[in-house]
Amino acid sequence: MSVSRRDIEKIAALAELGVDDASAAELEKQLTRILDYVAQLSEVTDDATSAVDERAARLRRDVVDPDSLSRTPKEIAPAFTDGLFTVPRLGELDRGEDAP
Amino acid sequence: MTDFVRAAREAAQRIAACEEKGTHAFLAWSEAALVEQAERLAKADATGPLAGEAVAVKDVIAESVFPTTCGSKILEGWRSPFEATVVRRLREAGAMVAGKANCDEFAMGSSTEWSAYGPSRNPVDPTRVPGGSSGGSAAAVAAGAVTMALGSETGGSVRQPAAFCGIVGIKPTYGRVSRYGLVAFGSSLDQIGTFGKDVVSAARLLGVISGRDDRDATSLDRIPLGEPGPAPASLKGTVIGVPREYFPEGLHAGIKAASDRALARLRDLGAEVRDVSLPHTKYAVPTYYIVAPAEASSNLARYDGVRYGPRADGGLTDVRAVYRATRGHGFGPEVRRRILLGTYVLSAGYYDAYYRKAQRVREAIRADFARVFAQGVHALFTPTTPTPAFKFGENTADPLAMYLSDVYVCTANLAWVPALSLPIGRDQGLPIGGQLIGAMEGEATIIRIAQALERAVNATAEVR
Amino acid sequence: MSWETVVGLEVHVQLLTATKMFCACSSKFGDPPNTNVCPVCLGLPGALPVPNEQAVRLAVRAAFALGCTVHPRSIFARKNYFYPDLPKGYQISQFEEPLATGGALEFVSAERGPVTVRIKRLHLEEDAGKSFHDRVPGMTAVDFNRSGVPLIEIVSEPDLRSPAEARAYLTTLKQILKYVEVSDCNMEEGSLRVDANLSIRPVGSSELRTRTEVKNMNSFSGVERALTAERERQIAATERGEEVVQTTMLFDAASGEVRPMRSKEEAQDYRYFPEPDLPPLVLTEKWLAAERAALPELPAAKRERLVKQYALPPADSAVLSASRGLADYYERVVKAGVAPKDAANWVMNDLLALSPDGETLAPAPERLVEVIGLVSGGKVSRQTAKRILGEMVSAPKDAALAVAERLGLLQVSDTGAIEGWVRETLAAHPAEVARYKAGESKLMGFLVGQAMKRSQGKADPKAVGAALAAALAR
């Protein structure tokens, strides 16, 4: 499975990972090699048609009892104004979800 | 009555001696912090099975005294405002946190060479790696700085460094120990594991930290394992399986010799040794290197500079630019590689062929183990690693070469079964580990067998 | 060319739980920002989710109320994307194996009559924090109080055929979900949010053409306006020969227009995979049966029953069953002995006049019954009843008689007093009396009115009328 430069750019964008040109070239080679290696799984034909997880989630009672923070949001935030975490404004409301 | 403060000062001396040699087992520690914890314990008249112990804690485990950096720049200086459940339990048992141990960045690696703060050195041979990712924890125990340490496993990161450093390392059944406070790498694989200078130390620590935690929905509904029992005098009635896939033609001669010797000791102790097969073993590494990076790519998405940690600012006016700069600069090359790999195998068009397929092969691997244990085998014996500790720089140029060193250990992570490594000899001065793998929830069995084997084998004797 | 509109709705509803979906922080709306937060809902390194039992219960209740099949086993999944108010960089939701599928919602469309909209799926997920883009200059500011609040997402098939139908669907959905006490469904407060998908096609065609997604609507009327604008835009574009491009359109309430979000180069790839931190959600048959049995009578059933049981016209029944509270109120009044039709009038006119939101119903049914009794017993006039009821809202424990007395509204039925007023009236208006006796019987109204004036409105008009008639007949 050959990984192209375009592939690297696409997945780096999905992962919000800045990748410079020098690294991109190296990554193309390394990821191609790794993906070729892991692709041998396609040889396996006797794997389960559906892996059934037998566990059942334990549910929590609806009672207010939060795990406390020894430092407040204000103290942990890189930037904080008027009780709110702040980041440089998005260029565009291009969230995949409802905006407001 | 434990003299906590004296214990603290003695621990500080041992840690100082270890670090002065350039071991770099720790990313953060101080005598003052040890003494402060000791004073608190003394004031509370603390008792408990670990009273007075100083335990090294891998830097991927959240704890309040020191930063939790996960060996990464992206969490440089991050002081967690909450503690992991295992750390709370340590303290309740009367122990102190000796310091935060070095590790490969976000637990991704097999040598600590990927730590953003420099590697740790193998105390047995400082030109060689201590293994990884929990290399700092292993080095701290091997150097005598502490007698027990916490590490974590996703693909063998406790057992492999235990083998490289000549100490004991245990990975529990998945769900045995709470992951609340363990910084996630591969959530369906991660487990906190324990190191000890001997089996009983590692087992005692596991006994204290294990047990159901309502803050971790994947933790088993079980009480803590508690203190290990006495070492058995005989292993009569115990069936040890030897999976042929772990003993290929061309296995490193020293590893083979050590394993043969250990098997002979097991027979001497009265165990029946049986040949078995785990046919899907060769697919374990490729399966692991799809599942783990996939989950990691998602688990590491939270490191975006928005709510905590350092943020790449420098006049960036758009939040996406902040993400890319923070993450691009904050993550090292191995982490970036795995995030990209993981993103790829989850992405549209590739999910079925890679991730979904890998989870199905994983089931086949799990079924291999279940089948063998259902046939009356109590534990499997295998080498822990294909080679003894390698030299610095030997595997960093080729990521795949590094991954292949996990071949004997990552199966237990995939199958969720417990596994343990104990030192079984040396080859040209380098420690060699023997691995015991148990059935689901079979910690007591492998601990018992390990205790017996430990007594029967000379861990520091040359095997060839 | 005649165009048909095809609309599907995705509705996100916040559940009425005390705590969040995956942590024990309070989920209360309106607290100071970033005060209901913890390691889990802030996405701190090492935190883990644990599902809220009550959220599951409410989701199941909603699913049953919408006629869905609830799956005993469902799987949580991660939806991966980056946004400042999404702390983990993924949302825990459900994807391939959701909690419920295959439901239906019925309402009456003004254009088509009774309509059934199929509900494709209903699943559980967590909310994100709230982003403010204009609070701090140049910055996006985030409050994580909302992060982790439990949501259900309800996805309809594209069975709606107009903006008005979309609005009717939402109104009906809100009524049902409020009936089962699953959510407040308040769009203005954000406990109900709507994303709409709209496409057009020639009338008579059954193809599904390219659709756009419409977001940023803050009210049900906003939804209708937004979809109207988007339909018109698509029709105009198509008639100009242009292709409808798959985009996201944002509604601007101030202008009533929709505008496209700047189009992204790549469509989002959420890379869904099963949530490894959560085992499957397993619900026993026994538990499900109990939840199904505990459902209250739903709006449609209640409407029908009120018509049948009390012989009410459908329009009245619809008003009285707008909320469970109102319907229960009505039935208590009837059970206390008031005739169903009378009770309906009293509740719809007098009671609802005192309750602008239709929710806070005061005074209590027993008090209303007392007032009705006073009127039918001639102790107060029908007109003064409203005043008495109004007074009782602030004095809920006082009996009607006491309130009427306090207000001096008790009618006088004392025959002596009435005869006195009648005598005075007849004496004061001899001309009218004569004309009445000569045959102008409508002057009775005038004479009754005069007698009432003399009594300062306090006389029982029926008694006055009777006394006058008797006196004039002599």
Task: Name the descriptors.
heterotrimer, B: 464 residues, alpha/beta, eleven-stranded mixed beta sheet, 11 strands, globular, C: 474 residues, alpha+beta, Arc Repressor Mutant, subunit A, nine-stranded mixed beta sheet, three-stranded antiparallel beta sheet, 15 helices, 39% helix
Summarize the structure.
Chain A has helices at residues 5-14, 21-38, 73-76; strands at residues 80-81, 84-88. Chain A is mainly α. Chain A starts with a helix and ends in a 12-residue tail after the last strand.
Mind telling me the C-alpha Rg of chain A?
22 Å
Largest interface: A-B, 54 and 63 residues
- Output the strand order for the largest sheet of chain B: 1-3-2-4-6-5-10-11-9-7-8
Helix-strand pattern of chain A, N to C?
HHHEE
Which spans of chain A have pLDDT < 50 for at least 5 consecutive residues?
94-100
Distance between the termini of chain A: 41 Å
Textual characterization of the structure:
The complex is a heterotrimer of chains A (100), B (464) and C (474). Chain A has 100 residues and is mainly alpha-helical. In chain A, 32% of the residues lie in helices and 7% in strands. In chain A, strands 1-2 form a two-stranded antiparallel sheet. Chain B has an eleven-stranded mixed β-sheet, sandwiched between helices. In chain B, helix 8 packs across helix 11 (352-374). Chain B has helices at 4-20, 31-43, 85-92, 135-142, 159-165, 199-209, 253-268, 284-299, 319-330, 333-346, 352-374, 399-404, 410-415, 443-456, and strands at residues 26-28, 54-58, 96-101, 148-153, 168-171, 191-196, 239-243, 272-276, 379-383, 419-427, 430-438. Chain C has three domains: 3-285, no CATH class; 299-406, no CATH class; 415-473, Arc Repressor Mutant, subunit A, CATH 1.10.10.410. Helix content of chain C is 39%, strand content 20%. Chain C contains 15 helices and 16 strands. In chain C, strands 2-6-7-10-1-11-12-13-14 form a nine-stranded mixed β-sheet. At the A-B interface, helix 1, helix 2, helix 3 and strand 2 of A face helix 8, helix 9, helix 10, helix 11 and helix 12 of B.
